[in-house]
Design brief:
288 residues; Rossmann fold; alpha/beta; 15 strands; 27% strand; Vcp-like ATPase, Chain A, domain 2; four-stranded antiparallel sheet; elongated
Length: 288
């Protein structure tokens, strides 16, 4: 067989199996190819060896005569459908990944701090995004979560671009300085705003992922108190369109809220009077 570039499946590749038959709900399976192994489902057995060496987009048949098309798995498919990617916390879903990276201008070569590793799903995406010249320092206070996140990253082959530190940033702080981006996803993000400001380079970007208005208010106040400007609060929406020739229309599903996303930039301006006028609060007189 003559191979053309990287268009053929090899051992170790993640692949997505998409049924070429009608199912009750959208079904897809993600496997990692390994010589001599087999994939089992209620639709039958498929040998990995029948996929290895074939061109992307090929059709394979299970022993029960069900046909599947085989495609290279995307990262979000692996995270959501690969059985060995373990969940221990709610993850930041792919619909927010691109939204965050565009508005925060995250790119290859960036040095990033993540506060709140969780399962490591978003960390996996960031690790691919920053490339071999970038790096992510991720802080997680729960040792068990950190172990699972490290395991997930090893499964994806992304451990060389990030480091997970087991530490409570609120109490123990951040080691790094002069980083491009700080991303925060913890229940009380306002408690680490000052530490984030110290870690960022001048003009550096801050992102806070936050689910409630209560948290939003406290966090915005702290951002303003500590010299962050250009503060924006956004919420991303994603609507799937039903793909059926006789009825192309929005899917009949409800609205699913994920989080509010705060974007801000480090400056050396601390607008205390602006805060007092805006919020009319006694908050500034409270002890930290």
């Amino acid at each position: 067989m003559v191979k053309l570039g990287h268009n053929y499946f090899a051992e170790g590749d993640f692949v997505t199996l998409i049924p070429l038959f009608k199912t009750k709900r959208e079904t897809r399976f993600v496997i990692r190819l390994e010589k001599g192994q087999v994939f089992h489902s209620k639709f039958g057995v498929i040998n990995h060896d029948e996929i290895i060496g074939r061109v992307h987009g090929s059709i394979v048949k299970s022993h029960l005569n069900y046909n599947f098309v085989v495609l290279p798995a995307t990262l979000h498919e692996v995270i959501q459908n690969y059985k060995h990617f373990k969940y221990i916390t709610q993850i930041i879903y792919p619909r927010d990944w691109g939204f965050i990276s565009v508005f925060a201008d995250i790119k290859e070569g960036d040095k990033i701090i993540e506060i709140g590793t969780g399962t490591g799903a978003f960390l996996s995406y960031l690790s691919r995004l920053v490339g071999s010249s970038g790096f992510i320092y991720s802080y997680e206070k729960d040792e068990e979560r950190a172990k699972i996140a490290n395991r997930n990253l090893r499964e994806l082959g992304l451990t060389g671009r990030c480091l997970i530190k087991v530490r409570d940033v609120v109490k123990e702080g951040i080691d790094e300085r002069n980083v491009d981006v700080v991303f925060i996803d913890i229940p009380e993000p306002w408690l680490v705003v000052k530490r984030a400001w110290c870690a960022l380079k001048p003009g550096g970007r801050m992102i806070v992922y936050i689910p409630t208005f209560n948290q939003l208010k406290k966090t915005v106040i702290e951002l303003m108190r500590h010299g962050f400007i250009d503060i924006k609060i956004k919420e991303g929406f994603l609507r799937n369109i039903q793909v059926k020739p006789y009825a192309i229309r929005p899917e009949l599903k409800g609205y699913y809220f994920s989080a509010f996303i705060i974007f801000a930039r480090k400056s050396f301006v601390i607008p205390v009077t602006y805060l007092e006028d805006l919020f009319k609060l006694e908050y500034l007189g409270e002890k930290n």
